[in-house]
Inverse folding.
């Protein structure tokens, strides 16, 4: 009698494979968007949503070119990868996408830290740069009392401010 073959069980995502899937911001946005929807959504709607986030605008302000660029990447690369790992159900012909059973493994990681909660540290560094540049420019123009501060004073101020923001960022990202 021939041995019976068991149906193959879908591979569980290893932690590395899961992190690899979630490393891409577009894939994270796809999962976040789909988790708030009941049933499948149209690829165009999904693309418009992701393009709006990437271009920092409302979905109805997304241009055809912006949406098409995202839609092409989702269609050709991101959605097939997510579908291969059973994270989304993706019907290429119908252009419909929904969360699959494998998405459950992703949700805990997305809940832990979302990009929407992450601080845009570049903005803080820009504020520090402006806080140093303005008094230095005023000192260079000879405007009192800024002109009375020696260059070393501004160097100490700049390094202290940048060090403080760097430490805050390091602590935040731990």
């Amino acid at each position: 009698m021939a041995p019976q073959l068991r149906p193959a069980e879908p591979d569980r995502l290893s932690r590395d494979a899961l992190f690899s899937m979630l490393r891409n911001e577009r894939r994270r946005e796809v999962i976040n968007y789909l988790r708030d929807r009941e049933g499948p959504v149209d690829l165009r709607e999904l693309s418009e949503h992701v393009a709006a986030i990437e271009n920092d605008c409302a979905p109805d302000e997304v241009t055809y070119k912006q949406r098409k660029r995202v839609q092409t990447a989702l269609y050709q690369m991101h959605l097939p990868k997510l579908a291969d790992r059973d994270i989304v159900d993706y019907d290429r012909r119908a252009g419909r996408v929904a969360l699959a059973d494998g998405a459950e493994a992703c949700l805990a990681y997305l809940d832990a830290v979302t990009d929407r909660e992450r601080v845009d540290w570049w903005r803080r560094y820009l504020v520090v740069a402006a806080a140093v540049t303005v008094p230095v420019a005023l000192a260079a123009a000879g405007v009192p009392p800024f002109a009375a501060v020696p260059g070393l004073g501004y160097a100490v101020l700049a390094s202290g401010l940048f060090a403080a923001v760097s430490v805050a960022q390091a602590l935040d990202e731990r």
Observations:
- The first strand starts at residue 41 and ends at 42.
- Confidence is low (pLDDT under 50) at residues 2-10.
- The helical segments are 15-22, 25-35, 43-54, 64-84, 104-112, 121-140, 151-172.
